[in-house]
Specification:
The complex is a heterodimer. Chain A is an alpha+beta fold. Chain A is built from 10 helices and 19 strands. Chain A folds into 4 domains: 87 residues; 106 residues, Kinase associated domain 1, KA1 (TATA-Binding Protein, 2-Layer Sandwich); 112 residues, Tick-borne Encephalitis virus Glycoprotein, domain 1 (Sandwich); 91 residues, no CATH class. Helices cover 33% and strands 39% of the residues of chain A. In chain A, a hairpin with a 6-residue loop joins β13 and β14. In chain A, α2 runs antiparallel to α5, α5 packs antiparallel against α8 and α8 runs antiparallel to α9. Chain B is 74% helix and 0% strand. The two termini of chain B are 24 Å apart. The chains are: A alpha+beta, B mainly alpha. At the A-B interface, α2, β7, β10, β17 and α9 of A face α7 and α8 of B.
Amino acid sequence: MEKTTNPVWRFFASVKLALFTLFILATTSIIGTLIPQGKPPEFYIEAFGPRIAHFLQILDVPQMYGSWWFIALLLLFCNNLIICTIDRLPGVWRVVVQDNLDTPVDRLEKMPQRQVLMADGDTSSLGEAASAIMHKNGWKADGKDKADGRLLFAQKAPWSRLGVYAVHLSILIIFAGAIIGVLNGYKAFVMIPEGASTEEVFPFGTKKAIPLGFSLRCDEFTVSYYDNGMPKEYRSVLTVNDQAAGKTITRPIVVNDPLDYKGITFYQSSYEPMQGFKISITRKADGKQQGFQIPFAKKTPWEGTGVEFGIINRQIRSRMGDVEQMKVWFFDGQGDPSVFWLANNGNATIARPTGIYEITGRQMFATGLQVAKDPGVWTVYLGCVLMLLGLYVAFFLSHRRVWVYISRAEAPGRCRIMVCGVSSKNRLAFEKEFAGLTGAFAEHPSFNQPKEQQA
Amino acid sequence: MNSSQLLGLTTFAYLFSAIIYVGLFVFRAKKSGTFATLLAAAALLLNTAGIGLRWYESHQMGIGYAPLSNMYESLVFFAWAIAAVYLGMEYKYKNRTLGAFSMPFAALAMILAGLKNPDIQPLMPALQSNWLIAHVITCFIGYAAFALASGFGIMYLLKDRKGISESSLLASLPETRTIEEIIHKTLVFGFLWLTAGIITGAVWANSAWGTYWSWDPKETWSLITWFIYAATLHARFTRGWGGRRIAWLAIFGFASVMFTYYGVNFLLAGLHSYGGG
């Protein structure tokens, strides 16, 4: 098949266009790393002045990676990949599947790797010996009788020629996965106070809530710290309550270990300290216990016991506003009230005129969850795996072919044996491999005879 | 002896071996070749031991983690990868002049590491992932290959001049055709690892934040670097570019790698800020 000469087709199939697109993609991508992305319009006016800011907005620079012109560049890139593949793949495919026993003998004589031997014997017995040598060296040969002799052929990794097309295809698969994700998925955020539930989440960039189809409760949120004060772990215990499916699942999540339910994934993303505390009080005398959720600086009664208590002060640990310790005010109606510091998550035992009380207290939080639904992610990963395999094949494997042609020489009972080969790449490695094969021929008793002068 | 002392020694060992390799090339003292190789291998062993000891120390402190998490640790691993990839190439190509253009990078990486704070810090929550290990290892093997390719690019440009006399220093360099082949092989190797590095980073980002790609400056620069090398490989494979152009592209590509690795942390803000410490 002749390649089309249609200039439009040739343009889109050209490597020149690929180089140009790669260059333009690389240079334009720099813009978005220099100009902060996704800020409100005022930011750009302040940073660059109203005229340049207006110009940036016209060109969608504040969201350049989703702008019409950047998407157009990516489409041009895909188009180039597709057309280039359609243009070249059929030819490459023919090389992969072709019958190399039909290769004309005069072309064999011009192969880059070539060695000629002379031997006594007839073409079929020498053919069998040659085939055995090839097999022993890892070349599984097929044979065919020709007009004046016998041709043997063996090849390794013919499919390695497809590696580069696998890489091109993998890029298209990754784009397809990204498109699936954009069309059928969303990225959202939700803040859930401890003990509260939500049935909807709020996607970025819009005000409209998306219903989850189930309810998600934050049972508990905790931050833990290393000795040096660095945060060690952010942990939320989440409960999914899916009434439609009659399912309840409780599972803790931490950063790098999200919760996935029905294709919606919840990631530990942030947290907010709340203006409230969880207090639990036990009266040792009769073991009576009660839990409370109380706001800051508000006196709270424990009904039926005469006890009143509250948090009157707190010590803040970090900029986030998490409490290191809280000052508890506790009064049971007799004597002076007890006032003491209680570590967050700590407990204290106090002796009062009415008996001994044990008190635990902790600050309340709201957990911030990143919510993602991305049905395209496995397609993207498939593309990534294919890309790595394709690159490996394209770079490190080569299609290697060897022919052995045994033809009757002029002297009766003599044969001329030509061993030749070619590799699609890695010429040096193939030279060695080829030398190994010809060496095996030279050492074999059937062929160990003075060789003909090479042309 | 603690790990930072051991790694300090590593710096000197790399520096010494780099000097010997450059000396081999400048004075054509072929006989000291084995010594240079042994020294480089010993430095690599020291480097390995230093990384291993640091790992052990972090466990002793009760915050055990693979020491690949900040600028100091990444530079130390970068030096390791440069030396390991170089020794592999020396073995493959049986050529020690390559060392004069490779080992200085390992020494330089360790010197830069020496300027950083070597204190062992526990991992913040975002870094507590096995993908961290896969991501850093793949990226830095790629970076190491690109560093060597740029060194060989310089070698090519030195060699590829008219009128190099037989007695000249440069006559001892491999033939331009051979250098070109080596540059190409190194770029191809680096490209595969860079691709793996970007992919492991994307998978990690997805498991931490739910987005495999967010056009953060570090991600974008890694992609820019990938585009540059992809273009370079296409230019060679299909348009037959070679020689000086590929040598320059190898140098230019490595500049982009360095910006991705170093420049982005200092000049641009983004998610990847923990790489800066």
